[in-house]
Design goal:
β1 and β2 form a beta hairpin. The protein is about 30% helix and about 30% strand. The protein is an alpha+beta fold and about 100 residues long. The longest helix has 17 residues.
Length: about 100
Amino acid sequence: MYRDEPIGGAEHQTWFSSAMSDHEDRIHRIALIQNAPSGVMSLAHIDRVSGVAEWGGYLAPHVTRGVGHGRQLLESSMAFARDEVGLSRLVVEVLEINQSA
């Protein structure tokens, strides 16, 4: 999220292998658009006592921008966080250069 350098295949694979296992303080899910893998959603630093987590969402490069897919990812993530994880608040950090967010 905060890197400018390209990420290699091996590093992606290491992250993906770790992300496929839920942990007490973090959860990742693959985002689907029209039943095709199209990005990822993450809940991090989950505090189940206070019902708060940090949210992150990423659309794959092939996904069309400007047609609501990012909003769809956020809304489905909020429903998942509320209904499946029992959270009441998500914290999101948006970089200034990401005007559409």
